[in-house]
Amino acid sequence: MTEPTCRLDVFKLLNNADFIYRPDTNTWSHHDGRPFTDAEQAMAHDATDVELETLSSTQKIGLDHGLGDPAHALRILMYRYSVKLPDGTTDEDIVASMTDRDRTEYQRLRTVIRTGIRPEVVTLLLDADLPAYLDTNTWTHHDGQPFTKQEKSLACSCTLKEMEAVLAQMQLELDFEQEREADAPRAFCALMDKYFGDVPDGTLIHDPASRMTEEDRIEYLRLRDILGPEMSIITDRDED
Fold first, then answer.
1. In Å, how far from its chain's centre is CA 56?
2. Are 154 and 124 in contact (CB under 8 A)?
3. Which of these, 25, 43, 200, 204, is most buried using a 10 Å CB contact count?
4. Model's pTM, two decimal places?
5. Domains: count for the chain
6. Is residue 240 part of a domain?
7. pLDDT tens digits along 214-235
8. What's the domain range around 192?
């Protein structure tokens, strides 16, 4: 049994369709506004899963490079499933019939349409070592791993709106860290008192972390790195 192929004439027609039914002709339109003929609409309705999936993949590649219309890509995705379901099926039921991968893509497209921001671009850039990029013009992750070709292409397709979202998130994280660092002495005192509040004054605590839970040990080490020499105010419990 031969594998189904993507018919070029059908793919070209689908690629030039808006997937919106016109009230005057009950057909889709070409991107230039011309209504589909009855023959063209019949050909479009005869499209196979392979042709529709190929079209979806093409649309996604375009969006990954900052091209295309996410609303159009969403209409294509919805049509791929709605065509197999009874007329009048709600959008919620159409989405429920999708595979997990396509449902994730549906949510992603909805986010892009609502915000104009591709979440995967923001996530990628937040994990990029931007200072290293400015020094070397080479994209790497924070762990030093180089970007793949696909990641480089995605990063370079970043829009102004997406970069603004990245910078806003970086500022939030910086503000949060500065607030935590400013509060570090109080937090350190509270953590130490939780375990050593009842030891006599002047007691030298050699290994505070050894008595802590794993979660508190992680917090202890974080605060210790922030405070540095100031740790002596607690670990050496001076009578003064």
1. 19
2. yes
3. 43
4. 0.62
5. 3
6. no
7. 888 888 888 887 777 655 555 5
8. 183-235
